[in-house]
Amino acid sequence: xxxxxxxxxxxxxxxxxxxxLLLVLIFAPAFIIAYWSFMGGGSTYYPVLVMDQDRGRCPxxxxxxxxxxxxxxxxxxxxxxxxxxxxxxxxxxxRSIAEQKLRDRDAAALVIFPPDFSQSIQAALxxxxxxxxxxTFVGDLNNPYYSVAGxxxxxxxxxYIQVATRQTRPVxxxxxxxxxxxxxxxxxxxxxxxxxxxxxxxxxSIAIAVTHQIEAGVHKRLQITRMRALDYMGGISLLYVLIxxxxxxxxxWTAQLLGFHSQGPLWVAIIICAITSFxxxxxxxxxxxxxxxxxxxxxxxxxxxxxxxxFSGSVFPPVKVTLFTLGGHAFRIFDFLPHTHAVVALNKxxxxxxxLGDVVFELxxxxxxxxxxxxxxxxxxxxxxxT
Length: 387
Description:
By secondary structure, this protein is of the alpha/beta class. It is 60% helix and 7% strand.
């Protein structure tokens, strides 16, 4: 069977450039490890500096400590739903040192409890109007971490004050996490998009390997055997779909070792990545068709790679510019990328526990786009090199 022959030839050509294959198989797991380290092993924590100037004794709770110490203890209890600490509290006495840490972004916020904080709590218990010095929050407003750390610390202190003064809010608030999202660490929220990079990085290998075959005249020798274009493209596609699945599994197992827990079936994620890989193959063939040399292919492939990874939501949040709405679905500016729909589908499956029937729209969109990309690549490559 000529398709199998093409598969074996392509595999041998790929193994002659092992570094290209290693890039695909190792880079995606390495990317996952990098994100895990960025998140501090699970979720991002926000370092908060605290200056405790409170000199009084607290009229509530443990009378041996100040109200500021009790409020600091409340701040330490702020965690994610997964149990990971949200705030890392460090006590300091020198404000100049604290402000230097804020400038160096070694800390996200500084909280200063005034000397009369306990007296203010006691006054509130007796119904007296507030007259003490305020709790001060210091931070770099240009640091995006400051807003999160400041809000979290403020909420913890406010909650403590309400309990200590026996004053409650007139309206209660409740949060209901969607499906299993409440127990996810911050690292786990990035994993679905990162898994898609494992299939996308294969574009490097495709463009370089196919261009190398063109340079070596491999496709011409295969044509002598009366090989059809379908056999040639089928053999190449079979090889790289298998590589994409292998890379996905390796990346998935790496994420699992680092604490990732899938809420949905892995086989659905494999189907999603396998379908997306056809779009990657098509773009790789388009790149190879215009490259001429493997060196040029290694350069040109970066442009579609950046488009597919950075504008689809795989690595960064997607650009949400809505063009129109149809059938209850908003169609955005980068929805012409199959990866955009693949990221949504993977998040539904791996993070929210959805099944195959819950991602029909995304599967339909990404399959249609992947087929179009693949056919465009096949047509262009056939026109330029197989006729």
